[in-house]
Design brief:
Blueprint lengths: L1 E2 L5 H10 L4 E6 L2 H9 L7 E6 L12 E7 L8 H11 E12 L6 H14 L15 H10 L5 E13 L1 H13 L3 H4 L3 H20 L2 E2 L2 E13 L1
Parallel strand pairs: 1-2, 2-3, 4-5
Antiparallel strand pairs: 5-8, 6-8, 7-8
C-alpha cells in the first residue's frame, strides 16, 4: 500500500518490483490527486488500485499487506497515533512499513527563509506554516511507531540534492502551500494572496539567490526514513 499516495509516484515505482502476481493499493484522502494518478499511464508489473480513504479509519482488512509505504505523509495526518496503529493493523506478520518524513525546518534554509517570512507577514507562529517539517524529531517518530505496536524500528537520516526549475514558480507555490492551513490566509482574496507572495519573495530574495544555479535552484533535502516491523 502507498499511503497518502497523492498522484501515485511511489505506487508507480514499486509496481514493477511487486510484479504481475501482486497488487498495489494507492490510498489518499484527496480525490483530485487520485484522479490525476488514474489518468497517467499504468506502469508495468502489479496493477494499481486507486482508492479514496482516511488513514485513521479501519476501512481496510487487517493482515492484508506485505508492505506499507508512506512518503512525506505522516506529518500531515491529524491523528498520527491512529495512523500508526492502522499501518500496523493492516500489515501481515513479517510485513514492513517504510515511512519518510522531512528533518527539521532549520536543516532546509530555502524553506526556512520562505516559511519564516510567511509566518511573520501573516502574524502567526511558525508552527502554523511548517507542518511539512513538524515530525522531524527521530525520537518522536520512534516512539510513535513503538506505541503503534511495531517491534523493530530503524530510523536512518538521508540527504538528497535536488534542482528546482522555474524558481519563481517554486517560490510562489511554496509560499501558497505553506499558508493554506492558516485561517487568515483563507480569508484573503486573490489579489491579497499575490501581494503576500510578492512581499515574501522580495524579503527573501537575497537568501534564495544564494541557491541559484543557472535557471534553477539547487539545494539538499534532508529526510528521516523509518523501517518498522
Amino acid at each position: 500500500m502507498d499511503l497518502a499516495c497523492g498522484t501515485g509516484s511511489v505506487a508507480r515505482q514499486v509496481a514493477p518490483m511487486v510484479g504481475i502476481s501482486g497488487q498495489v493499493l494507492a490510498l489518499d484522502i484527496n480525490s483530485v490527486m487520485l484522479e490525476v494518478g488514474r489518468a497517467q499511464p499504468s506502469p508495468a508489473g502489479a496493477s494499481i488500485l486507486w482508492q479514496e480513504g482516511d488513514a485513521t479509519r479501519r476501512e481496510l482488512p487487517g493482515d492484508a499487506f506485505d508492505l506499507v509505504l508512506c512518503q512525506q505523509g505522516l506529518q500531515f495526518f491529524p491523528d498520527r497515533a491512529a495512523s500508526g496503529r492502522e499501518m500496523r493493523r493492516v500489515l501481515r506478520d513479517g510485513g514492513s512499513a517504510v515511512i519518510s518524513v522531512w528533518q527539521s525546518l532549520n536543516s532546509h534554509p530555502v524553506y526556512e527563509a520562505l516559511f519564516t517570512e510567511t509566518a511573520r507577514l501573516l502574524d502567526v507562529p511558525i508552527t502554523d506554516v511548517d507542518v511539512a517539517f513538524s515530525l522531524s524529531n527521530p525520537d518522536e517518530l520512534y516512539t510513535l511507531l513503538g506505541e503503534a505496536g511495531f517491534q523493530y524500528i530503524e530510523i536512518t537520516p538521508r540527504s538528497q540534492s535536488i534542482r528546482m526549475p522555474e524558481p519563481e514558480r517554486f517560490v510562489q507555490f511554496s509560499i501558497l502551500g505553506a499558508a493554506t492551513s492558516v485561517p487568515v490566509f483563507a480569508s484573503m482574496d486573490a489579489a491579497e494572496r499575490l501581494a503576500l507572495v510578492d512581499e515574501v519573495r522580495a524579503e527573501t530574495h537575497a537568501i534564495i539567490q544564494g541557491f541559484r544555479d543557472g535557471d534553477s535552484l539547487a539545494f539538499s533535502m534532508e529526510t528521516n526514513i523509518a523501517i518498522a516491523k
